[in-house]
Each structure stands twice: as structure tokens, then as C-alpha cells.
Amino acid sequence: MSQRTPLFDAHLAANGKIVDFAGWEMPINYGSQIKEHEAVRSDAGMFDVSHMTAVDVRGERATAFLQQLIANDVAKLGFEGKALYSGMLNETGGVIDDLIVYRTSWGYRVVINAGTTAKDLAWMEPVAARFGVTLTPRRDLAMIAVQGPNALAKAAAAKPEIAALIESLQVFVGLPHGEWFVARTGYTGEDGLEITMPAAEAEPFWNALLAAGVAPAGLGARDTLRLEAGMNLYGNEMDDNVSPLAAGMGWTVAWEPLDRDFTGRRTIEAEKAQRSAGGAGLLKQVGLVYEGKGVLRGHMKVVSEAGEGEISSGTFSPSLQVSIAMARVPLAVKLGDTVQVDVRGTLQPARVVKMPFVRNGKKVFE
Amino acid sequence: MSTQIPSDLKYVASHEWLRVEADGSVTVGITDHAQSLLGDVVFVEVPGVGDVLAEDDQAGVVESVKSASDVYAPIAGEIVAVNETLADTPDTVNSDPYGAGWFFRIKPANAADLDRLMDAAAYGQEIGA
Asked: What is the CATH number of the domain that holds A296?
């Protein structure tokens, strides 16, 4: 059964083309994905991300709960408002979901993906019971991401009550304002905000953002922007069978302290040792750039001298005007190498590059 | 937004349109409905002039940011012209699908093949327009 966010009518009013996304009726674009992409890179765009789920965590042992649950260490959150990106792993070291945790006055807020919400909660609840913490999925909230070089100024203009808070936010910090929660986070490689508010206040805020000159942007643009930014998408770059080490998420795993026995640790620790020893058969994540005809897509086969790999996400990059992709390839493949990609039946050369491809509107790879 | 289905063209279910030219050749492109489903077109591959195709043979590829789709020969025949400008301006397929965004011209092997194609009303029904 498909679900609608509190902004569904606003999407129709803005000519949004609605598609099914993880059981939600969401706008894929409002006319042109490329124009929406460019609006975010050059000015400001907004995305309805209300389908994601904020889960509040309360209880004396909330910190211990999260230290068990996720691969990154919430003890790193040195002050209220600080955010942390992490994978939540299963026992075999696969990624159940990737998420953001905020330290809050009541404990923590965890923001999880739309398509994995039911699975995540089913995983989290027994652990929560063991630690005596309560989980509150905040289905009463809506979330709008405002992204781009002018996003902060335009969001402040649209909602003057939160202007001072926006001004005060460091990158990757989120703080409440009454029932609202304003975070300087995003998924586009631009400066920006993810703003959470009571469902009934979403549409007036959306309309105020429109009036402030923020362009509505659909899930299509969200995908090309995040790919240019080299950011993982759950279900593409990782899933229950892909380890964070194969998905370029090694930096999100907190190995110290050594005695923090988070779920999945033993498996990925063994994998880490194998990788250090050369890791035959193991894969790592790289970026690919393809300047030939056609477009790299997910699941295309990658052929290298060291063996085969696979593209996890590929697209045409509106900012770079070439095709780019994220791929999992054998460990021996190096930056600067040329690999072959099976593009619709013929092997085509693509260059291996360090991600991200684009940051703050500019090409960043060599 | 209503989709455009010009009444002077013929259509096939795989969303190609056909226009019979004065010299008997047939111009082929993809419909407004098809371009709208694809989204921003970023790359088009057309067949070679002189290629002889059977009905439903692959006659090219149209790639949008979102996905790649094959383009098929809606009738059998020989390719007599292709739209070279699509290599540099593939987005013409979005902005002018029935005009400057045409793909190729084919000389029908059998003119009677044209009689079996859908008219605008039938195509409109096909896509639920």
C-alpha cells in the first residue's frame, strides 16, 4: 500500500511527476531533473524527505545501546547537536542500513532510510528492550532538505524564527527550535539544511521556501547530486550482504576502543585483516569516469586485470557532462587505472578516480 | 500536462511515431509520451545510413539521465537518413519530439506495412491519454 507525505498536494501543485519509491508516492522531478540539479548546484533547491524516519532514543542506557547497535561510536558526539554517520551492521558484517545519529537533549535522534524503516525497527527493537531504552518513530514529523550555496540564506528568509539558529549551526550539527529540528546536513555535496517539523507545518514552510526562490527538486536530482558527491545509497552501494569495508565506509567504523563489541565487529575485523593481507576476492569502492558514448548504469560488469567487479550506481553527471559511476572492484585496482565496463554488450574504457566527483559545485577528481 | 499526439502521424506500441514523407520515405522518432517518461535525454544513438532492418530490429538507443531504452524499427526497410544533430543536442528529443528531435528516415520494404499501424486515437488509448 503506497503512502503519501504531508507534502503530496504541494508536489502536485508544483507539477511533480509522481512515482513509487519504497512504497511512497514521491516526485521524481518537476519537469526537468537536470534543471533541478543545476538549481541545487548554483542556488538553492528543496527535497521532500519526509519518507525518511526519525526515531527518538530515550533511556539511561541510550549511549550503550547505540554503541552496541552501530559501527561508529556515539561517544564521539562531544556536544548536544553533533551528528554522526554510521552503518548499522548485522552479525555477518552486512549493512542493515546507513543512518545519521544526532545527540539531543533527550538522548539521541536516529534518522533512517524510508525503504528500510520496517526492517530497521524490527532489528532495533529487541536490542532496545535489552538495554531498557525506548524508541519512538516520529511519524508525526515531516522533513524538508534545503540544499545549495544559497540554501541557508533562503531558508532563513522563509522562516525568520529559525534564522538565528541556522546562523549558529556548524556543519553536521542539528538542534531543535520548539517542535522543529534544524540540521546542517544533506546529501548533495552542497551546504544545506535538513529541517524537520510537525506534519501540519510542512506545507506552509514549503510554500514559504518557494516564495523565497527555492526550487522544488525531485528524487531524480537527489540521486545525480548524491552520486556526484560520492555518497552511498542504501540498496545500491550497500545492503545486508555488503560489508562497510567493501562499500567505502571504512571511515565510519570506529575500531577504537578495542573493547566496544558492536554487532558485526568480529566479522569485519577478520575481513580487515584479510584486506591487509592482499584480500584475494575482496572488493573495494572506487569512482569511475566514462567519456565515451552512452551512460554507465548500476549492475554493469567491470573488467580489470585483477578480476571482475560491478557498478553499484551510475548516471550521467549534469555538472560534469560525462558519465560517472560508483563501483566495487578488486583491491588491486588503483586510482588512475583504466578498467573496462560492459556497456550494453561492448567493453568500454573507464578511468578509476577518487571520489567525490563534485563538491560545492566544483569538479574535484583529477 | 497533457501529452501531445499529433493526428497526422502513425504510431506503434513501443512509442515510436512515423510520418510518411512526399518521397515515400518514413520519418521516425519517439513520442512526446515516451520522452516524458524518459526524462532529460543525454545521449542518442541512431542507425547507419544504408542499414537494412526488419520490423522490430533495434535501430538505436536513447539514454536519459534516468535510463537507457532501445529504439526499434517500426517497419522493415532501409535507413536512408539519420538525424546527425542529436549527437550534439540530444535534448532536442525532449523539447521537440515530433520535429527537430526525429531519429531516422526509413524506406519501407513494403508500403502495406504502414496500414497496420496505430493512428493517433488508437495510440492515445494505448497509453491511456
From this structure: 2.40.30.110
